[in-house]
Amino acid sequence: MPYLGGEDTVRELRRALSNPNVQSDQLRYRNTILKVIRAMSQGVDVSGLFSDMVKACATVDIVQKKLVYVFLCSYAALNPELSLLVINTLRKDCQDPNPMVRSLALRNMTNLRLPSLMEYVEQPLTAGLRDRAACVRRVAVLGWAKLHNLQPNSEIDAAVVNELYSLLRDPDPVVMVNCLRALEEILKEEGGIAINKPITHHLLNRLKESDVWGQCEVLRILQRYRPQSEDELFDILSLLDASLVSPHPQVMAATLSLFLSLCSGLPAVSLAALERVRGPLLAACGSVSRELRFTALCHIQLLLRSLPGLMGAHYKRFFCGYAEPAYIKQRKMQVLVELVNDDNVTMLLDELKGYCTDVNTDTAQAAISAIGRIGRSYSDRCLEILTGLLALKQEHITSAVVQTMRDLVWVCPQCSDTVCLALEGCEETLQDSQGRQALLWLLGVYGEQVSSAPYTLEVFIDGVRSEVSLGVKMELLTTTMRLFLCRPAETQDMLGRLLHYCIEEEPDMCVRDQALLYYRLLHCGIEETQKVLQGRRSDPSLGVLIGRPSEPISQWACSFNTLEPLRQGTVETDSTSRGSPEHVTFEPKPNTDLSDTLNCSQVEKVPSGSVSASRCTDASADVPASSIAAPLSLSLSPALSPEEFERLWLQRQVLHSEQGDEKMEEDYMCLEEQIQFPAIPHCSPQSLQAAMQLVNIQTLAFTPPHTLPWRVYLYTHTQHAGDSPHITLILGELLYTGEANQRAVLKKGVCDRELAVEGGEEEQVEEEEEATADGQRIRVSMRKEGEEEELKVTLKQQPRDDKALKGFLSILTTVLHTLSSERK
């Protein structure tokens, strides 16, 4: 907006610039020009003074020249014809003996940005490339890039390009870096500057001579070069080693990005490079600059995807400071969640508990959400903290806790009893729509376990006319219908009142249509209604913290040292922006879920040369190749209660003893696995449970660690993708007795009976497969030699499916191997 009184100001300034007395006094003349620049910065249109300012540039005062050139470059586009008047002065200054005047004239000659002046600029720029002063060469190199940007379709002068390539060996490092930038701009359509071996080694040898941003520019351009041999590769890495631990975070990040690009086929070298940058990254996290701290935290999260234990010993460095901004606190809490393990979980939870009462509500809710994510692996401790927070009776805390409990139950259904007990009375504190939606979902799914569920719903239904949230109304309808199916006597009257209001009085069509759907669904019968409304209660496959495999570095290497890590704000979907968990579609990341890498074909992946390899080859001879390659999917639906599991487990034993051996099927398939488990019986129940849930295997009962005999009971449902629906139920038991020198024996053939003879010094176990028309059992003993443990796995399947059972055994073995490697 023009400055008020601009015409009078311009008139006064023109009078002063034309006054001979002012022109003769150098100080007064400079102050007048300074007033012109000040008026221009305030929004006054001073373009009418262009001709007077052109006269003022003919001076020996460098300060006055700079002020005049600022004005001319700003208004040259509005006065292209008058701009020709200044060209002679600029060309004359390009021959001035003072290098500062020459560089200033070249810079402003290219800053005029007028295509009509290009023919006058090319000759001074060409002479500037050969100038004896480095500051002039710096400006001349960038001037050619400006000219090309002004007319990108013009023909590229090969002589200029060759001159710029020769200046890569200029003794001044700034000239060298400016040549790289200019060639990148001029040769953009050809892919940028051509990087070969001599140029690469020259740039690397002179890397330390450049400033911080010059080094970053060189390292960025060198990512296009590919060494011709392994020796050359390691020579380059040796030259980059010092920059990898540079005290400047920008140089360190650019060097690591180049390291990862060069070592894409050497994962061990890449991992070693990640270890090397741990110190500089931790130093950047303590920087005075908030922006630098935030950027370092984002890139640390990126590194933890491939090296989860990188910052494990330094988790205290990510504790939040009181004066830190909320966005840094929230990012630090995300990092802390990634660093949790059995050793530090107590201290981390205590620290996060303190953040839950932060004065910033966003920080407090982020801390509660972080505790909920840790609860996927350490549910008991986290639920104790969350339950204690409900006692504070603060609105934003209660809302976040209820939403976190909803998400935790969806992933860990074994927490439902504790959550249902904690829900009593919290509806009085909830005021926001997200918290009430979460509470209603919990009441609808686990209403039979909450004694006060009908009374809580009645409060919501009585106030439905004053409810303004559409999501709460729709969730209330679904919850009331679900509660009616399990507690009809207490809910029938309030369901009728709610349906009548939503159908007859509700103005919103979405709520009305949903009420009509439920009303017509009830007319179809209770069984049909149950099929629609009583779906799955949980989805443990969404992922856990413990047992999650690390990602290949190649998945994120291209986004390192870019803005991409800063845009990845949260690890999971924000719970405050969604409704019921079962209505959300989660898009899994490629190759980040352990279940994505497991299929039935892994049964055949046995090391050659082992005893089991030959037996597996014989055993699989009768199985078609297509059946081996078919992927196997595991599911937890329908869920089994502990009582139902015990009934089915004992029922299989009774059937086996009653039917006898004559009804057992012949020609069953057996596999022998020799797998080493160094620490499975010593891992925590939370770790084992989390790893199993990651691949849709539900654990029901545990024996405490270091207790003998050590047992775990589990179950899952199997189905082959692409086949006609054929679902089998598999029950399993993991048993570790602590006895040494046991052997795994699994035979293939016709078995008439199971015989076990135990002696004082000798033990013989003959494992048989027990199969009936609707059941099958395989027992596999897994041996560990020396310091290793022997784990016995008992599986019971109904109905029989050899292919599915072998696939499940392979998946289970891979999960146990993953846990073993995590404990090393």
From TrEMBL:
<dbReference type="InterPro" id="IPR002553">
    <property type="entry name" value="Clathrin/coatomer_adapt-like_N"/>
</dbReference>
<keyword id="KW-0813">Transport</keyword>
<protein>
    <recommendedName>
        <fullName>Beta-adaptin appendage C-terminal subdomain domain-containing protein</fullName>
    </recommendedName>
</protein>
<dbReference type="Pfam" id="PF01602">
    <property type="entry name" value="Adaptin_N"/>
</dbReference>
<feature type="domain" description="Beta-adaptin appendage C-terminal subdomain">
    <location>
        <begin position="632"/>
        <end position="817"/>
    </location>
</feature>
<dbReference type="GO" id="GO:0016192">
    <property type="term" value="P:vesicle-mediated transport"/>
</dbReference>
<dbReference type="InterPro" id="IPR012295">
    <property type="entry name" value="TBP_dom_sf"/>
</dbReference>
<dbReference type="InterPro" id="IPR015151">
    <property type="entry name" value="B-adaptin_app_sub_C"/>
</dbReference>
<dbReference type="GO" id="GO:0030131">
    <property type="term" value="C:clathrin adaptor complex"/>
</dbReference>
<feature type="region of interest" description="Disordered">
    <location>
        <begin position="571"/>
        <end position="594"/>
    </location>
</feature>
<keyword id="KW-0472">Membrane</keyword>
<keyword id="KW-0653">Protein transport</keyword>
<dbReference type="InterPro" id="IPR026739">
    <property type="entry name" value="AP_beta"/>
</dbReference>
<dbReference type="Pfam" id="PF09066">
    <property type="entry name" value="B2-adapt-app_C"/>
</dbReference>
<comment type="similarity">
    <text>Belongs to the adaptor complexes large subunit family.</text>
</comment>
<dbReference type="InterPro" id="IPR016024">
    <property type="entry name" value="ARM-type_fold"/>
</dbReference>
<dbReference type="GO" id="GO:0006886">
    <property type="term" value="P:intracellular protein transport"/>
</dbReference>
<feature type="region of interest" description="Disordered">
    <location>
        <begin position="759"/>
        <end position="795"/>
    </location>
</feature>
<feature type="compositionally biased region" description="Acidic residues">
    <location>
        <begin position="759"/>
        <end position="772"/>
    </location>
</feature>
<dbReference type="GO" id="GO:0012505">
    <property type="term" value="C:endomembrane system"/>
</dbReference>
<dbReference type="InterPro" id="IPR011989">
    <property type="entry name" value="ARM-like"/>
</dbReference>
